[in-house]
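DATA SHEET
Item: assembly model
Revision: 1
Owner: S.N.
Input lines:
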Amino acid sequence: MDEPGCSAPGTPPSGREPEPRGSPCGNWMATHPKLTEMMSLDVADSTQVYAAFLVYLDLLEGKNWYNVTCVGLAELQLVCLRGREREAENLQVVVPTPVHMSFTHQRLREIMQKACIPQDETDSPLSVILAIVESDSTVVYYKLTDGFIMPDPPDDTEDMDNKQWRKKRRKLLR
Amino acid sequence: MGHCWRERGGLFGATFSSPNPCPPTSNGMKGRGQSCPPSQSHSPPLLKTKPMGIEKSSTASCRSAMIQIHVLEGAALVWSAEDAREIRERFRLVGTLVGALTRKPRQNARLGLPLQLLPEEARLLAELGAAVLVRRTETQPPAEGEELTQASLVEAYQRELEESYQEQQRLAGAERGALLAQLAERIAQGRARRREQRGEMPDTVEDSGLLDSPFVLPRGSMMVQLPTARWRPGRVEQVDWTSPSADWPHAGRPAHEARYRVFRELWGRGYYLSGGSKFGGDFLVYPGDPLRFHAHYIALCCPPEAPLPLHALVAATRLGTSVKKTLLLCSPGAGGALAFTSLQWSGLQ
């Protein structure tokens, strides 16, 4: 599939040969209704909108999320997405961003406060998923939460079977 | 000081009386602190201990002398084993042992005194009024009544050596005598048998002479004590931790002040903290003593306006995830309080 490079769609990429006539692909991204919807929100620049579009496609097609919608946050100048990971779960907020954008800690907290959906249980902390989009369309997802979140404990049985762990333990106990 | 044949030093010079360690879990010698409920940002800390509010009066009543922290070009060192122990047990500050062990010098697995403290740890102790920062000096006038010259110290040391030798000789002689008395019968039998073989008459009078021969302990066999703590401190003068100087340059530096704020806040919540350079962070945050628990968080102090490049954020979070720790961004927030943000891998495949 012909995919545009890192430049935003809608602008003709320079130096690219014209598609053969009758090809089923064409510049399908530029006319995708969701992309046009995001651009029409007119809150962010084209690179962020493009990143948001890629994350939208990845969430729906790649990760099989449900009910993914896009929301424009004017004061943050971002397009962010909301969706459910599984049908019965709560809505989560995903904030797409191109990799070259730099954030301050303060901006991250601002994003968390403004983009987050107020949940029914008031004691659950503010949390968003930051989706970082590389120039080759790789997306990595990292979860930001306000406050202290303990890491997941190690899976005990998994470690028991680990040969390396057993060797290390033998060495320690010697 | 007394006569102790055992060498002082080692880890803390005394048995480390920490509470019984967690029963060994399947993932090795350390536990994970899973019994504690996950903490929220506003709730009390994980441990059910009282918050550490040490007032000056209680400090003064427990110890007659303050902990001495020797500073040298920005490094804070504690040379006394008792002080090092108190710092860990009472003040929940860990530090790092950086000295060579006198009996096992050429290795890095187990190190001994001095205990090096982070600048934040030293400052915390000074602020609590439990410690003073000192530095060695030669310009201090001698204490009244005592002119401690180098020669007199050497003389005193030689005198002690000689006394120790005499006592060792006496004890060794007595032990030898007791041993010979125990084996006297067998020795006499052996002698008699030998005389029979040679065909002489048994002569019991000669045998007993063996027990009276003077015993001389060879100097080379003497046990020598190597003191690993100075029982009489060298000349020191106090250093003001609030103003920067050659030996304590941290005061007033914005980076240090920011780190200290975060350190103080996390320490105040009941955590144990140690240096985080092994994991690319500022501090490692433990729910309990680092000997018993793995760290839960890698704390990164960032000024609120400093830009964080995303690739650095990804690298730090990914490292944290692979070593089972949460990355904690800490910076002063609105209204003077500190803001903490946890970063984890989202787990989306």
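QC remark: The interface with chain B takes residues 63, 85, 97, 99-106, 108-109, 112, 123, 125, 129, 132, 140-154, 156-157, 159-160, 165, 168-169, 172 of chain A (CB under 8 Å).
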